[in-house]
Protein 1
Amino acid sequence: MYTVNSLIKPENADFLGIYDCSDGVSMALYENVNEDAFHAYKNALVNEGYSVFDSTDFAGNIHFTLKNDDMLVQLYRSIDGKMRVIADPYTAEYDKEQGSVERKCNTELYQFETDHSLIDCGMCYIIRCADNSFFIIDSAHYFSVHDNDRIHDFLRSMTPENKKIRIAGWFISHGHEDHYSKFMDYMLYNCEDTVIERIYLNLVSAQHPDCGRWNQYNNVLMENFRNFINNERDIPIVKLHTGQRFFVRNLEFKVLCTHEDVYPESNEDFNNSSVVLMLDAEGSRILIPGDAGDKESIIMEERYGEWLKSDIVQLSHHGHNGTSERFYEYVNADVVLCPNTQIKIDEEFPRIRANRVAKEIAKEFYISANGTVRLTLPYKLGTAQVFPDETTEDFVSIKYLWGYDYTPEFKLNHISQFLKRSKK
């Protein structure tokens, strides 16, 4: 099996260790690598028979993808002088250039209302590409029982009756069940009239040195999901690494951070295994941090700074403990999308300053539980369409499942607001 140990070693660099990136992929970390030495190492690999597949420069952080017949190698030098060398013998290739796109519709970003009757977490974003195919980000929790059907019906409603639903890419941000569960159910129960072209992800290893600090039930579920994905080899799976830029139809994505960037620090917070994406489409920039937490936040702040500036940002970790106030100051987004319930945001807003900073900067703030939101790209402020609210809390079941309870007055007011949003 090809590993990072199969590669030549860079000269005059300090070796810090090897990291298991999971899925048979490994990474060597070096420090005190200047830009000249980084390019010299890339050239040495070319002399060994590798060819340059792609290259990027994000705010002075330089990346190369090299390939031969057996393996893709990712070289990434961050501005702190550290070099990450990743050997990936299994990943499918990504599209490094935008192909021709037959324009049939507007490009639209949807913050999809996941069913929050029984659960307050879950996240699903659907981008309708210009050719009427779709790119989907995450899905929903298994307690959002029928959301695979709801997602399917939503896509079906925008697809001509005599055509298959075409999902050009489905991205899973990390291995928490509220992000991938309904993707699995969609694959099992809704794919008869659907074509999925590629899956994009980078799951952390279940043998990570810090896995004992993570929720063990979640770890088992993540491994079940990994096995499920590995059995879907008829769909190309792209393992994403920091520095990559890939295209899906008229969408351009940049990978800003993964769990690989946290190494050699500990990763006791599983949310710091999120893959962070930046999307550029039709002149609008959208930042999707998934559930990125404190360590990924610091990494991105230090590497990218004001380059993070975006028009639209997803509130990290559903507005729970996620990225920092400094992160949102750099992002400086006019629109904030929050994949959570109104109740939980209201409860946590006074406690989490980062949420308050993001909202103070923004001109528009949308909570997914209050109804699916459509943003036509390029987005102009004031043009969002909020669809009728479809689901609301089942307070009896929530008390039984989670122990949460509220006063009769609170519940009556909440249901009254739901009826107004649902136009019932």
Protein 2
Amino acid sequence: MITAKNYKFFKKNNPIFILCALLFLVCLSRLLTLGTYALIDPTEGRYAEIARVMVATDNWITPQIDEDVPFWGKPPLSFWATAICYRIMGHSEFATRLPSWIFGIISVFLTYLLGSALRGPVFGLCSALVLSTTGLFYVLAGGVMTDPSLATSVTLSMVGFAMSLQSSGSCPRRLWGWAFFAGLGLSLLAKGPVGLILTFLPVFIWSVCNKQLRSSLKILPWFSGVILTLLITLPWYIAAEIKTPGFLNYFIVGEHFQRFLVAGWEGDLYGNPHNHPYGMIWAFFIIATLPWSILFARTFFKKRKHPWPVKKPEETPWFSYMLFWALSPAVFFTFSKNIMITYVLPGLPGFAIAVTMILINSVHKLPKGQKPWYMNKKVLALAAFFFPVVFCCTTIPIIRNRENMKSQKNLIEWFEQKETYETAELIYLEDEVPYSAQFYSKGRAQYINKNDTHKIDEKFSDSDVDYFVVRQEIAENIPWKYLNINKKVAVFGKYILFREQQHKETDKNLNG
């Protein structure tokens, strides 16, 4: 209820109300898009299937890519979150993507808390708005990946460290110190040791450059904090190694050393290495931070009397802290070829606060009443809603039009409208069933190697109606003596769906 006391909050020119409204609209727009397009192979389909199998087998220790096939590539934090959503909401695209949105909201809130502690609520809301509308962050706030959980964990540690230094009382300082170590533990459950590196690298460099290494070491509750980190992390790592021996060797050595140091690493069990030139991560960083990277560069490299974007000299260290935080993923992965654009995500909250410092500082350096063109309300609103509008109005329709190319949803739905898995089998002539097909069929789709004619013969000799899914590029090369007893019933992107013809009685249903 609006009263005379709180009426001022809702006034048209109240910056807090305006920023809250903009932030709410941005977060709501991403929430409403979570279920509007199919899960995309291979990444989204794979991680969704792992969470589905976790619920189906009730095995919460070992993530599995298929029943009885362990997935050693990532720790379980993201899979746990998705599996919990499945238990509560059932299996759907919305439930699959919701955890990433929640992780994103937590990161936005932590960014607001730190910004508010540094310069007040308006600054905190500006920082949160910049973060939520940064290109990569907005997209991955609904992406089925492990990066959002890692980014939130790193953000918790970085905010905890900064708030510990900012806090005056011993109790708040200790609580934020524990938050720092809790973030370390969660990052180990989100994506492994890389979270420790992305936290300690900027903290160490910043502490040394600002001659605060000793005070930084003293401010944190190391003994109780390390115990907290171990309590969060060790139980799962020990249980995972006991349940599937060999996990630690593959995950620690393979995924965290060979993956990044060996170009074209051939030991990857779950995907293909991403081979890029050295330093490509910096190009990824610029792309990921659009459109704010343009305003950041325009303002930061503009000639000025004062080198740092601050209102007060004592605030100078915090800009460098944010800058080190933002750039630490790019610095760490500079000499790695096996990288993805998502690797820069943990640094984006620091980037958002640094951008806000730059923009607000540029206003204070001008004569009273003057503002640079990029601080115009319309320009900032356009920048803030650039990616949300592009994503909702352009990207999602494009994805939906290409669902047959990157997802098996439409094929599975077509099959389930015509048949049941009790009366017909859906068989992919592949080395494995595509991940999205496993998810949408709830693990009931099968596969046979296209060259295994013996097993294919067995399928034709049984009494079941069989449907075969074949990629168009190999359909003509398959040594099929069966084409005269199969009918091409549908095409889904690069896949052709064939059906056995010895059961004529179901043809009417297919044409119905």
Protein 3
Amino acid sequence: MNGRANVISELLINIWEKFHEHGIEIPYPQRDLHIRSSDVGNLPTEP
């Protein structure tokens, strides 16, 4: 009657609340950058 989006939204809110009740957290993605060598000394400088 109110469309599929309302059902999906209510379902996601209920899941989010259950996660919160049980202390479940979803971490943000983490990316690490490891630089093995650098050519920074070879960059041109401005006049």
